[in-house]
Amino acid sequence: MGGLRIWALCFLLFHELVLCNGDLSYSILEELSRGHVVGNLAKDLGLDAKTLAARNARLDADGGSKRFCELDLRRGALVVSEAADREELCGSQTTCVLKYELVLERPLELHGIVVNVQDINDNPPQFSLNEIKLEIRESADKGTSFFLGEAHDADLGQNAVQGYSLERNSHFSLNVRANSDGGKYAELVLDKELDREKEQQLTLSLSAHDGGDPPRSGSAVIHITVLDANDNSPVFSQSVYRVSLPENAPVGTVVVAVNATDADEGVNGEVTYEFSRLSDKAARLFSLDKISGEIKVAGAIDFEEKSYYEMRVQAKDGLGSASDAKVVVDVTDVNDNSPKIVVKSLMNPFPENVSPGTEVGIINVQDEDSGQNRQVRCFIQEHVPFKLNPSIKNYYSIVTTSDVDRELVSDFNITITATDEGTPPLSSSMTIHLSVSDVNDNPPVFDEQSYSAYVAENNKAGTSICSVTARDPDWRQNGTVLYSLLPSEVNGVPVSSFLSINADTGVIHAVRSFDYEQFRSLKVQVVSRDNGSPPLSSNATVSVFITDENDNSPQILYPAPEGKSLMTEMVPKAALSGSLVSKVIAVDADSGQNAWLSYRIVKSTDPGLFSMGVHSGEIRVQRDISESDSMKQNLVISVRDNGQPPLSATCSVYLLISDNLAEVPELKDMTYEEKSSKLTSYLIIALVSVSTFFLTFIILILAVRFCRRRKPRLLFDGAVAIPSAYLPPNYAEVEGAGTLRSSYNYDAYLTTGSHTSDFKFIRSYNDSTLPAGGTLRKSPDDPFGSSFNEAHGEEVRETSSHFKLI
Ligand SMILES: *[C@@H]1O[C@H](CO)[C@@H](O)[C@H](O)[C@H]1NC(C)=O
Ligand SMILES: *[C@@H]1O[C@H](CO)[C@@H](O)[C@H](O)[C@H]1NC(C)=O
Ligand SMILES: *[C@@H]1O[C@H](CO)[C@@H](O)[C@H](O)[C@H]1NC(C)=O
Fold it and tell me: How many CB atoms lie within 10 A of CB 789?
């Protein structure tokens, strides 16, 4: 059919050319087998097959064309004699033409025959190599293309290579491009980066296909070797290394070994370690081995200082690609701190009168460790009256558990021990010295509740009689004892005029000379008082017993001594021997031996006529009186006491031996004296005048006293207050009035060394203490009526104001 068309074309364009007119054109597909009719020549020439044969038709051909077609004269057709391979015939020429000439004889005719061999898709695309080897560095960027070359297809046009396809994979895609000569070639494009560490080799199959029908394809294998690049940083096995390290771990202890691996090869994979971020403190405490990655202790790890370290370790490979990891070191507590005891406040000293449960101090206990190691128990070791009361947090108060007596224990050493609960536990202790301050809680106590003292009468004023002692265990002034006498009266006279006490020493002195005959004992209350505030006191009784001395001569009551007696005893002439004539009566104010009297006849008119009862004082006739005996007998009798030395008195006894009283007047001469009566008159006059004077004085005194009462006042001195009523009413007026019946001596003195002063009003006691039995005649050296002025040390003798009417 195609042959016809070409023919027609020729005819239309070149019909003037005979030759051209004569050409016959056919088209065949290559590779047709032998016998295949290319074209019906006979018919196309308008002849029949027999004519052709008859005209000896033959086919001439140039060169190689000859072999492929031949003339089938029987059918008058051009047939394929040999399969023609267009590619072999024409290669890559687009038209492949076989040219023949048909020669006819009779007449000679020449027809050109053109056989166009058309391509069929009989060749697959083909790669020059079945294996394409590529080496691609893993660091190759995305989009990089790698030339793969061209596949060749001997066919033409559509039958030639039309495209490529690549096995599905995750890294590459294919890019098909055209050559300048129209050929298509493929490029491998990196779609996704390679990672040598994941895949070192990739094998992909690449195929090329043509456009024939059916299409043919050819393939090749792409072998890609991925080359290493230092694309891997070292990678730590953990991003955070968290370890715990006990504090005080010795230097050199391995804390942790970090480990990083680098997937790269060779130098790219050699990892070294170093700290990348590290506090100064951690830098002193930890060291890192560059090669092994071991972190070791290099200093003293103290939990209390810092319990948490964070550092970063960098791992670097040979080319400097690095990564880092965090290392966290939790330091764990070790019980390495003993508790600390701090005294926060202390009441030192504390008074002894605090009640049990009083807080005397506060302590605080701290332990720098943590957890159990920080739990502290606190206690007091000794057996002391204190305990610890836990209060808020770590505070304890020291409280007393019982009463405290400074006089028993005045200071305490309290050892407080604090123990923590670590294993092993640590403890520390502290000794607190607490002292107890005094409170005046003890009164002075006398050694004895009552004292007895003996003093001989006629003692010197100021003699010490005895001493009392009271003890007060309190401290300083609370225990300083001062003595005083409790004001009282003895026979109406203040006791202070008899006794005084040294406030400091407790020595009791006699203020005056005592007279046994006045009183024999004194009882006084002694007060001991301490100097506390308020003071405490106690008292004791002191009994002073005055012992007798032979200071009184015997007093002869009968007969009147000194020969003043008018009495004359009558002795009957007939008195027999042994009969009682008279009796001398004497007394002695002393007592005991001192008052044991013995009587003796010292002188007698007729010795031997009378005898004396030594102790009875009875005068008896010793022998019968005879006429020859003198009528008047005179005896001088001595009365002597038994004291040491003895004292005596004498008297005269007049005896008249007579039976007749008429004889008595004679005796009047003997005794009566005119002078005597005169003297009596004088005495009476004197007495009357003195009495008048005295009465006037009494009135005066009463008047003054009355005035004083109206303005009472108080005298203060220290703690001692004496109301003015205590003052003797007339002490001022009597000053120097030594002749008064009564007088008062005002006497004030400061007790040595004491802060108190006493007023002592020493009143002469002769007005009030005069014993009722005062008929005794006053002897000149009678202490009665004398007072001792201690302040001036002089003895004031008063004139006796006692008169006796005889
Ligand atoms: C307390 O301790 C001090 C000093 O160690 C010591 O002098 C004192 O006698 C002690 N007191 C007591 C009550 O143990
Ligand atoms: C004496 O006791 C009182 C309390 O009664 C006290 O205040 C004072 O401090 C004590 N004096 C001394 C010296 O201890
Ligand atoms: C003296 O002591 C007794 C007994 O202790 C007491 O009853 C009396 O009141 C005390 N007297 C004075 C004045 O203190």
Answer: 16
How many A from CA of 82 to the centre of ligand 1?
141
Instruction: Tell whether ligand 3 has an atom less than 6 A from the beta carbon of residue 484.
Output: no
Mean pLDDT over each residue of the chain, to the nearest integer? 79
Least-confidence region, from 203-212, 460-469, 663-672: 663-672
Reported as a pLDDT band with limits 50, 70 and 90, residue 541 is very high
| pLDDT, tens digit, 9 for 90 and up, residues 282-319 | 889 999 999 999 999 999 998 888 889 999 998 988 88
Atom of ligand 2 nearest to the CA of 441: 5
Amino acid at 235: V
| Cut 0.70: pTM above it | no
What 3-state class would DSSP assign to 282?
helix
| Torsion (CA) 684, 689, 692, 696 in degrees, nearest 10 | -150
Ligand 2 centre to CA of 536 (Å) is 12
User: From the CA of 436, which ligand is nearest?
Assistant: 2
Pocket of ligand 2 contains residue 410 by CB under 6 Å: no
Which 3-state string (H, E, C) describes 529-579? Answer: EECCCCCCEEEEEEEEEEECCCCCCCEEEECCCCCCCCCEEEECCCCCCCC
Report the residue among 381, 433, 434, 435 best suited for mutation to probe ligand 1: largest number of ligand atoms under 8 A from its CB. Answer: 433
From residue 309, how far is each of 248, 284, 312 by CA, in Å? 15, 12, 10
The ligand minimizing its distance to the Cα of 537 is 3
What is the Cα–Cα distance from 499 to 459, expressed in whole angstroms? 12
CA 147 to chain CA mean position, Å: 86
